[in-house]
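Reagents: none. Just compute today. DUF3999 family protein.
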Amino acid sequence: MTIKTNYLFSILLMFSLGCFAQMDTYQYERPLTGIEDEWHNIIIPSKVFENLQPDLSDLRIYGLTSTNDTIVAPYLLETLSDQVVQHKIPFKIINRSKGTEGFYYTFQVPTEASINVIDLDFKVANFDWNVTLEGSQDQQDWFTILEDYRILSIQNNITNYSFSQLRFPEANYTYLRLLVKTKEAPQLEGAHLNKVEVNRGTILNFPIRSMFQNTDRGTKITEVDVILEETVPVSELHIEVDNTYDFYRALKIEYRSDSLNTERGWTYQYSTLTKGVLHSLEPQTFSFKSTLAKHLKVTLYNKDNEPLSLGKIKVYGPQHQLLARFSQPAAYRLVYGKASAKAPSYDIARFKSKVPKELKALHVGDEVSLQKQKSPEARPLFQNKYWLWGIIGVIILILGGFTLSMMKKR
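Predicted 3D structure written out:
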């Protein structure tokens, strides 16, 4: 070989070793099989999240070619959560009147758009009313959309809560008539008519390993610990209550974000996912940003009320997938588990529109640990210091004997 060829070969060898060294800094890998096209999607198995960083920044796809070159396959990370699209519908209030049953408000909708949500804004701060909503095309024949639908608002020094949103199946009427059943003027200040569309994602129901409920009568607080089977990305919590009477309780949902082993045992740190109100007006599902968690805690503030009898609690979260591009044949694997990893920056993030819509999913194999076996700890030849002092003493005696013997010979 010439000097130039040797130099180039040395550079390539160092680059290849550098790629291997980079991959070795990760703790786990899973083989990827079934690669046939340039683009594929990879459904992230739920067990992977147990060893991932909270922001999922340490996911990588490495491939080993037939020439022992290590290459990287770029990817896009997708969270398959529900997508909510809200369309505002123009309208105007053409009539306000009072009847024997309460106060009437008539809305005129100049478009043919369907409506399924109405947000009401009242000047009155505290109320508990039932409303009826009707629709008509000519203001002669009226058809019931909602009947005795309860709305509520509580505002004081402790609580600021309002439930004044009407939800119903899509309705298409030129006129809508709202009846608020109250003797006092509700003072409707405004309303928002909307068509809300929900594009369903892939939402998973995560199994719960155990659940513990405890009420402290002194603090008037109920805490519910929910432990999942494994660490997963959670984004929704559904709570069922067995009590049949009306209730209204402030609520906080947290997850265990850190732990510390002290002389007194383990101490845990919790971070808030969301705050809200658990009430009897509608099914209770609380949504929050998708977060990796295994241990959840629900806190209910009972005040002077009897603790609620909670039924089932269900935990949901979105499925995560990678849209990956494979440029050349190789033995690819999904690697992860690196605390210092930063989220990758790939060019394909700027060209999302060019990713094919229909992708074939790859098979993700079992997890393999990449952690190097620790060398056995070197132990001293003599672990007991008395043995060491004894041997030193014997050596001193022997040396002293030799010294005296030499002095006598002289």
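The radius of gyration is 34 Å.
Action item: order primers for follow-up constructs.
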